[in-house]
């Protein structure tokens, strides 16, 4: 395997991981910043504002980096793409099983 093929294989492996990391960073950063703003403004943002902002961030990230990360940074996006037949059933089930295998043990701790 020559060097160019190795670089393309490396990019194909790490590109979705990096895209999901960026998406997770934006979700955590914007959610925390909005919660802090809600605290500073004495509750003017409220929970509805926080949830709307997070959903807007998910929508923006889905349109911008969803094809790179295969939109697995949010379960409802994966289900939506599966329902619209953008992802195959096997692909979606694998992604959801992997997601639940990470989240369930962390909730039990």
Summarize the structure in words.
- This protein has 4 helices and no strands.
- By secondary structure, the protein is mainly alpha-helical.
- The chain has one domain (14-108).
- Helix 1 packs antiparallel against helix 2 and helix 3 runs antiparallel to helix 4.
- The radius of gyration is 17 Å and the shape is globular.
- It starts with a helix and ends with a helix.
- The model has no long low-confidence stretch (mean pLDDT 76).
The proportion of residues forming helix, as a percent range, comes to: over 70%
The SS-based structural class is mainly alpha
Q: How many helices?
A: 4
Mean pLDDT: 76
Number of strands: 0
What is the H/E order? Answer: HHHH
List keywords for this structure.
109 residues; mainly alpha; globular
Compile the SSE list and pairings:
Blueprint: H1 3-40, H2 46-69, H3 75-83, H4 89-108
């Amino acid at each position: 395997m020559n060097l160019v093929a190795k670089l393309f294989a490396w990019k194909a492996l790490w590109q979705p991981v990096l895209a999901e990391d960026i998406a997770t960073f934006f979700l955590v950063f914007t959610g925390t910043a909005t919660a802090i703003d809600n605290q500073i403004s004495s509750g003017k943002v409220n929970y509805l504002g926080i949830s709307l902002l997070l959903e807007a961030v998910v929508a923006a990230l889905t349109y911008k980096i969803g094809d790179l990360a295969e939109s697995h940074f949010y379960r409802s996006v994966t289900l939506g793409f599966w329902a619209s037949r953008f992802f195959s059933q096997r692909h979606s089930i694998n992604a959801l099983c992997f997601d639940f295998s990470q989240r369930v043990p962390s909730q039990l701790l």
